[in-house]
Amino acid sequence: MSDKTLVVGPSWVGDMVMAQSLFKAIKQRYPHTSLDVLAPEWSRPLTERMVEVANSISMPLKHGELGLKARYKLGIKLRDAHYQRCYVLPNSFKSGLIPWFAKIPERIGWRGEWRYGLLNQVRILSKKTYPLMVERYVALAFDKTQKITPSDYRPTLITKQDNIEIALKNYQLTTEKPILVMCPGAEFGPSKRWPEKYYAKLANYYLDKGWQVWIFGSAKDSEVAEVIQEQTQARCNDLTGRTKLGEAIDLMSQARMVVTNDSGLMHIAAALSRPLVAVYGSTSPGFTPPLNEKAVVIQESLPCSPCFKRICPLGHHQCMEQLAVEKVINAIEKMVTP
After folding, report:
1. Are 275 and 335 in contact (CB under 8 A)?
2. Taking the complete model, does pTM exceed 0.85, yes or no?
3. Measured between alpha carbons, how far is 43 from 332 in angstroms, rounded to an integer?
4. Do residues 122 and 115 touch, judged by C-beta distance below 8 A?
């Protein structure tokens, strides 16, 4: 019987990118295993760009939905795959149900919600030992005593030139001028967003230097992009809400520089090995940093930051308001080669 591994993946873009570090670690420990990922359908363009993943299995439920009957039916179906082991990355009780219904012999994960029985290899997390989320993922692949070095398992998304050419044509883009990609949104909430007026000022600076600026984000970020466009005389290419995830990955691979909030797109840029400046305010690079040696993190040192709140609880958003555009430009200039 061939060796097979299942991973129940996370439900957020950035977390799924970081989960690739676990996939790499699993393939290191079990070089001949065939690794499948069970995750929301939106994540397929990500997992398809991860060489470690053999198959992507669509989770038929929305985030947070119990759907006990659907989980049972999928678990029964997965029995035919004869997986030897399953790593469960979400910490919820319900995320452990499918591998239990599938009767997978080894079911591994952090304790999370009380799930003894559903998981039979339950790890108890020490946040001091594993402060980074990526360390917590990778640690599941190995013995509890093994030292984890996240840089050994950096996510690396692959792209194909044919897909890039198609995406460029679809959106009438060229790569003749250097490309500054800006990701001004953040799914988590407004507290993670560097002000759009600062993004606009940054865009104008590089547009005046002969660069082009592409704005990426979901449809929810279109309002922010509109403000930037108003303040740049519509000189940017606004791709928010237009590109599919796979297209965004392929197009972002062409960037000379990426400037981004702490977001899923930040982790994608890092996994594409793009030079990037990551702007942090309400969250901490000590938990979910961009896993890229070319990345520079900029943040203000304030007593109220990081608060990890969706909206600034003090109402002033100083962690972002005080972060000057000039700091970002200086960081870019140190990284950009003529």
Report:
1. yes
2. yes
3. 30
4. yes
Number of domains in the chain: 2
Q: How many CB atoms lie within 10 A of CB 187?
A: 16
CA atoms within 13 Å, Cβ hemisphere of 76: 6
Q: Please, which contacts does 41-49 make with residues 24 or more away whose CB atoms are closer than 8 Å? A: 42/245, 43/9, 43/13, 43/16, 45/244, 45/245, 45/246, 45/249, 46/13, 46/16, 46/17, 46/157, 46/245, 46/249, 46/268, 47/9, 47/16, 48/246, 49/157, 49/158, 49/159, 49/246, 49/249
Pairing of strands 237-238, 257-261: unpaired
On whether both 252 and 303 belong to a single domain, the answer is: yes
CA 55 remoteness from chain centre:
19
69 and 193 in a single domain? The answer is no
| Rounded-to-integer distance, Cα 248 and Cα 326, Å | 27
- Asked if 182 contacts 260 with a C-beta cutoff of 8 angstroms, the reply is yes
Question: Cα 117 to chain center, whole Å?
Answer: 30
CATH code: domain of residue 196: 3.40.50.2000
Residue 338: per-residue pLDDT:
60
Sign of CA dihedral 144, 147, 151, 156: negative
Residue 150 domain flag: no
210 and 132 in a common domain = no
* 294 domain residue, yes or no: yes
Tens of pLDDT, residue by residue over 100-120, are 999 999 999 999 888 888 999
